[in-house]
Amino acid sequence: MENLKKIKTFTSKIEAEIAKGFLQSNGINSFIFTDDAGSMYPAQDFVYGVSLMVDKKDYGSAKELLDALEFETEEE
Question: DSSP letter at 11?
């Protein structure tokens, strides 16, 4: 986890999965973290958000890709 950096926090897992798939199709691995009790309480995503994390070395490339899709990414 220490090599990962949050690139974006989403309000739904679906949006996070779309962004993850887009990054993966461009050769960047990403990981989704959520606190929804194993999908038992999906409404928790609105409260705590769904984090999309990438490897620190891929952060710049991932940010450029997501910004091109008009996702607002986290500031460095």
Answer: S
